[in-house]
Amino acid sequence: MKLVKYLLLVLVSIQVNSQSDAEVLEKIYKASLTYGKSYEWLDYLSNQIGSRLSGSLGAEKAVEWGKAELDSLGLDKVWLQPVMVPKWIRGAKEYAFIETKSGRTTTVNICALGGSVATPALGIKANIVEVHDFEELADLGEDNIKGKIVFYNRPMQPDIINTFEAYGGCVNQRYKGAIEASKYGAVGVIVRSMNLRLDDLPHTGSMTYENLSVSKRIPSAAISTNDAEMLSSMLALDKNIKFYFKQSCKQLADVQSYNVIGEIRGSEFPNEYIIVGGHLDSWDLGDGSHDDGAGIVQSMEVLRLMKELNINPKRSIRVVMFMNEENGLRGATKYAEVAKSKNENHVFALESDAGGFTPRGFSFECSDAVYNKVLAWKPLFEPYLIHHFVKGGSGADVGPLKSDTTVLAGLRPDTQRYFDHHHASNDTFDAINKRELELGAASMTSLIYLFDKYGTSSISNQEQIKN
Amino acid sequence: MKLVKYLLLVLVSIQVNSQSDAEVLEKIYKASLTYGKSYEWLDYLSNQIGSRLSGSLGAEKAVEWGKAELDSLGLDKVWLQPVMVPKWIRGAKEYAFIETKSGRTTTVNICALGGSVATPALGIKANIVEVHDFEELADLGEDNIKGKIVFYNRPMQPDIINTFEAYGGCVNQRYKGAIEASKYGAVGVIVRSMNLRLDDLPHTGSMTYENLSVSKRIPSAAISTNDAEMLSSMLALDKNIKFYFKQSCKQLADVQSYNVIGEIRGSEFPNEYIIVGGHLDSWDLGDGSHDDGAGIVQSMEVLRLMKELNINPKRSIRVVMFMNEENGLRGATKYAEVAKSKNENHVFALESDAGGFTPRGFSFECSDAVYNKVLAWKPLFEPYLIHHFVKGGSGADVGPLKSDTTVLAGLRPDTQRYFDHHHASNDTFDAINKRELELGAASMTSLIYLFDKYGTSSISNQEQIKN
């Protein structure tokens, strides 16, 4: 029986190996677009489980679901990797208003930033000072800030084509705004939502107090872009308006959680690992369909498609569902620690954490030699309208694996709509387009297939490609 | 005074000409993304005017609005070009159900196809036969078709990456389904909506009876994809189920309408014309935001940005808002007729009629020599993630201008979501992303700028580009 099984395996391998890479990619895209599972999986994750902030019941359910789904794929190994994660809870819905001199109030849409402390139970009411960066804050100094709320209102720059770059140019207001404002005696922080669109939705996201003493920690919240514009206009008319907000969020003790991992054992180089992943946790306002349910189901689909299409990899392929990307990166840190302690040779790590939109290409963190090798694969992707290969950041969760020998990569989907939904209550399943999601999964599977077949050595693979 | 004006013009021209092409493109994109007007215009066209089927009040209002907006741009000339257009009206909302042997009925979502005749006032109830193409229909023949309704159910192929190609593989069912079915004595036609997604929305679109005698014209309607799937399943269980539908649409006499045209007179070669356009008419179910409100406002934006940025074109640049693309192409035909009769030398015509999604590139109908010239411009577009230059169909409205000397081109946006909205009630303004629309307008302006600057002669412009 064993011999028969072996011969069958050899036959299947020969069959796959006798196909050109172009033929294999065609099968991968066709399978993803005609009988893919990514969309159905995401429907369940988003609509049956929903939001899954680290330490929440949703996150726990997502771990169980992820493991059960991987178990059903017939992989060689599926397991949970324990990791302690922070648990922050939002509590009651936040409430805020602007109050004019005459006592008239206008409610505005805010949400606490992840990791923020609560306001006092009755809320905070104070004057509010608009600034656009930390320099402006420092120039104002304690005289103008003490006892007031600081309002960071630097918008994302609309003329930057890649919206992630525009995000990068603003996010320090959110992440470090409280710690900077508290230096000058501010009593609270309101941050313009990281959103290129004008709408009414506040966008949450992580912030830090670093080592700030507990007594100096001031509550921080995001305000919707429409309300940021209104607040700014009202301040231009009268600097003495007051801002009130109330939030009851809380940081609890760390709790037990898990990365979920599945593996197909490599047939030739089982000790060389290729991983593909996204993060299983999400913020609590939406259902995390784009951030990063999409990356999770696309990564699962990579291994499912390989099994489905009898692609028998030479190297060991793992899907990793990282826990706690949003507010701690504990899962990614743990995964890299364990990999290091076991001396596991990770040759390639691919992340999808930029939304489930139409894939445009990939970014790579690697040597020039490897990058040139990768560029030779570009023509294989052109029929699928994947045109954009760049050197650049790959992703937060594969980041801790960075080394001279590990090639890191990130899927690069279209970014124009991403920040309309990012960390907000409209990051929901209805904003996902099935085909776009499936094209991403197929693109990722294709890249993993090529890295598995040709390895990551920097020798030119031009001739191999021609086969 | 005239001399001063002339000198000023020369100064401005020198200023623009002294900028590199890369600098000009940067200004164009920045202007479109930071103080563009396309989105605001589309908001008005979609939400204040709404649907604008040829001959409707909406179309009439759109003509007035288009002319008034162009008048406000300070162009050299704005005018209406008269054209007679067909007027088809939908009448009361359609109604349809499936009836099983036991008499149980299930309502389904249909809409009359544009150009279809009505059913008798009481509707039609008949057996229904599913086919997938005209060959299958012919094989069944009169014996199996006579007195029945024909149900065309060939879906768009999901594994075709460019969804317009998948559309092209299906649309003959809609356009010629009635004429084919009537050959075998069918009493009506139901066509699966041209939609890659499974949902409840019927998608309309044009159909033809050609020269079929009036008595043989049978009513045709589209059914939603979900209902097409259900109907097919029910037919698999019982071929004797009945289908009922009722529609009261009507073709009226042709009415007067207009193409709306605006022009900036060329400074060096005023008798060489470059045009950019889309179609002002739309189907009646949604508000036509993607098809083709987007193309209209992007085309308007091209001329507005040129004025705004003091780009003083050498050639005459026209925006053309074509009337009646959807069900007659009368506006495009008229425009080309007039251009020919006046011996106007059209050197380049660019159309945007593939939705307001993220632009990916352009298609060109031209000689290889000109195409190679265009390819040399590609690096200028890469910072804006415009990667996809192809030879291929440009668009229906610029089509009649086709000649050996006129270069035709079409904007190629991302196509994945387009047919979710195409000709359906959800082709509405909320499905438009402001940035995606603006990126398209900037890409079009950039291409027009380059064609104006370098002309369409086939001489290599590599050296020009380097300036």
How are the SSEs placed, and which strands pair?
The structure is a homodimer of 467-residue chains.
Chain A lengths: L1 H16 L3 H15 L2 H12 L7 H15 L5 E13 L5 E5 L5 E4 L1 E3 L11 E8 L2 H12 L3 E4 L10 H6 L2 H13 L4 E5 L27 E4 L1 H13 L4 E5 L3 E15 L4 E11 L9 H20 L6 E8 L7 H12 L3 E7 L7 E7 L2 H8 L2 H4 L6 E4 L15 E7 L4 H4 L12 H21 L7 H5 L1
Parallel strand pairs in A: 5-6, 6-7, 7-8, 11-12, 11-13, 13-16, 14-15
Antiparallel strand pairs in A: 1-10, 2-3, 2-9, 4-8, 5-9, 10-12, 14-16
Helix pairs in contact in A: 2-14, 3-9, 5-7, 9-14
Helix and strand composition category of chain A: alpha/beta
Number of strands of chain A: 16
Q: Please report the number of helical segments of chain A.
A: 15
Oligomer: homodimer
- First and last CA, distance of chain A: 34 Å
CATH domain class of the largest domain in chain A: Alpha Beta
Number of discrete domains of chain A:
2
Main beta sheet of chain A: strand number and arrangement?
Answer: 8 strands, mixed
Largest interface: A-B, 27 and 27 residues
Residues in helix, % of chain A = 25-40%
Q: What percent of residues of chain A are in strands? A: 15-25%
What is the CA-atom radius of gyration of chain A, in angstroms? Answer: 24 Å
CATH homologous superfamily classification of the largest domain in chain A = Zn peptidases
